[in-house]
UniProtKB/TrEMBL annotation:
<keyword id="KW-1133">Transmembrane helix</keyword>
<feature type="transmembrane region" description="Helical">
    <location>
        <begin position="46"/>
        <end position="62"/>
    </location>
</feature>
<feature type="transmembrane region" description="Helical">
    <location>
        <begin position="21"/>
        <end position="39"/>
    </location>
</feature>
<protein>
    <submittedName>
        <fullName>DUF2759 family protein</fullName>
    </submittedName>
</protein>
<keyword id="KW-0812">Transmembrane</keyword>
<dbReference type="InterPro" id="IPR024490">
    <property type="entry name" value="DUF2759"/>
</dbReference>
<keyword id="KW-0472">Membrane</keyword>
<dbReference type="Pfam" id="PF10958">
    <property type="entry name" value="DUF2759"/>
</dbReference>
Length: 72
């Protein structure tokens, strides 16, 4: 019976690592930066807005893939 329980716990492994926290923090920082770029009044830096948008999309996709591998 104990052998079956050990096999069941080995089959479900979490992919969580401590680097995941940094990925989430970087995503939040990019989102804050994008909002600040969009809130500028006189002239908007279109290149920076585009770069931040693409970066945010890439980080959001990576975060989704990362969190979907976690086992709760």
């Amino acid at each position: 019976m104990n052998f079956l329980a050990e096999n069941a716990t080995e089959a479900v492994k979490s992919t969580y690592s401590h680097f995941d926290i940094f990925m989430l923090v970087f995503t939040i920082l990019i989102a804050i930066g994008l909002v600040r770029l969009l809130m500028q009044r006189p002239r908007k830096n279109v290149l920076a807005i585009g770069f931040a948008t693409v970066s945010l999309l890439v980080f959001l996709a990576a975060d989704y893939k990362m969190v979907s591998g976690w086992v709760f």
